[in-house]
Write a structure and sequence with these properties.
By secondary structure, the chain is mostly helical. Helices cover about 45% and strands about 0% of the residues.
C-alpha cells in the first residue's frame, strides 16, 4: 500500500520562476517597443517639411484639371465613339420603362421554323420504313 500513496500524492512543485520571468520579460519588451514607437518622429511628415518652401498646389485647380482629363477621356479621345453617342445607342435599345440600365440583356434569337419539305426529327417517315 505504500506504493499507491506515492502515486496519488506527488511532491508539490515549486514556484514557476521561468514562466513568470518570461512573461514579465515579454511585458517589458512590449512596453519598451510602444515607448520607442511613440517617442520617434513621424517619418511620413518629413516629406511635408520639404515642401515648406514651395507653395502648396491649390486643391480646386487640381480638381478642375482631373475633371478636365476625365471629361476628355469620356468624350471619346482615343475611343470608338463619344460618351453621348454610346448613351444614345444604349437608350435606344431599351424596350420598355422597366428595363434596367446600364446594360440590358439582348433577346435570345428566335428559333428557325423548319421547312415544309424537311421532316421533323421525331416524326417517322411516311413510307413505313424506319
Amino acid at each position: 500500500m505504500a506504493a499507491s500513496t506515492e502515486h496519488t500524492n506527488p511532491e508539490p512543485q515549486g514556484f514557476p520562476f521561468i514562466t513568470v520571468g518570461a512573461s514579465v520579460g515579454v511585458l517589458f519588451a512590449f512596453l519598451f517597443l510602444m515607448w520607442l514607437v511613440t517617442s520617434r518622429e513621424n517619418v511620413l511628415d518629413a516629406s511635408k517639411t520639404d515642401l515648406k518652401g514651395e507653395p502648396k498646389p491649390d486643391a480646386a485647380a487640381k480638381l478642375d484639371e482631373v475633371k478636365g482629363r476625365n471629361e476628355a477621356a469620356l468624350n471619346g479621345v482615343g475611343a470608338k465613339m463619344s460618351r453621348d453617342e454610346a448613351h444614345g445607342k444604349l437608350l435606344s435599345t431599351l424596350k420598355g420603362p422597366n428595363d434596367k440600365m446600364p446594360f440590358p440583356t439582348p433577346e435570345p434569337p428566335a428559333p428557325v421554323a423548319p421547312k415544309k419539305d424537311e421532316l421533323k426529327k421525331d416524326e417517322p417517315k411516311k413510307d413505313g420504313k424506319g
